[in-house]
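Chain A, query sequence.
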Amino acid sequence: MKKYILIGILLLLAILSVLFQYHYRVEADSRDIEDTTGTDFSHDLFNQILQKYVEKGKVDYAKLKKSPEKFEKYLDMLARAKPTDMSYNEQLAFWINAYNALVIKGVIDHYPTKSVRKIKTFGGFFSRLKFHVAGEKYTLDHIEHDILRKEFVDPRVHFALVCASIGCPPIENKVFLPETIDEQLDAVTTKFVTNPEKVRLDKTKRRVYLSKIFKWYKKDFTEGYTGVADFLADFLPTEDADFVLEKDVKFHYLDYDWTLNDKK
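Chain A, predicted structure.
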C-alpha cells in the first residue's frame, strides 16, 4: 500500500513540475539577428502598424496576428539596431517604441487572451518573455526598469509605456519621434492626468482618486518634483492644480484594470 502511495506522490510531483515549467519558464523570441543588411533604422514601419491597427487606445490584435509581415520586419530592425550610436532623444524614442512594440508582440504570440496576466502568471508576461533588441535579449521589465527608468529618469515615460491593459495609458496611433519626444511626452502625460478614469478630483470630499501607477512608482515623481501632488499640478488646469496641492487633500488609488486593450 505504501508503495502505491509513494508512486502516486511521485507522479503528482512530476505533473506539478511539468505545469510549473510551462507557466514559469522563460520564453525567448526566436529571431535571426546575424543578417546586418539594411541596418538603417527607422520607426516608420511601426508607425504604419499603429495607424492601421490602433483606434482610440485599442489594438486590433486579431487582424495584426493574421498579417504580421510588416510588424515582423520592424521587430527584425529592432533586433539589429544600435541605439548606442544614437543621440539621447533618439535612444529615448527607440526604447519607448521598442517597449510598446514588444508588448504587442507578446500579446499576439499568445492571442487570444483576455489579459496579459493570463499569459504568464504573477507578472511573468513582463519578466519571463524575452525579446531580441539591439543584439541582446531583454524582458519588458529590463527595458522599463533598467534602461528607461534608470538611464533616462523622466517620470513622463510612465504615460508613454503601454502594458496592453485598460488601466495603463492608452496606446497612441503614432510612434514617438526624437525631434518631438518632449512635446509628445507632455501630451500623453496631460491626457492621462486629465482623464477622470485615471485621475479624478472630488473637491467635496477633499479627495483625489488616481491610478496605481502613481503608487507603484512614487519615488519616480520626486525627480524634478516634490512628489506626486507637485507632478500632477504641473499638468492640471490651474484650479485643479491648486486643489491637489492643498494639505488636507487625501489621495486614494484606483483598482488597476488588467483587461486587455483589445479592439475586438
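Residues 218 and 228 are 7 Å apart (CA to CA). The chain has a mean pLDDT of 91.
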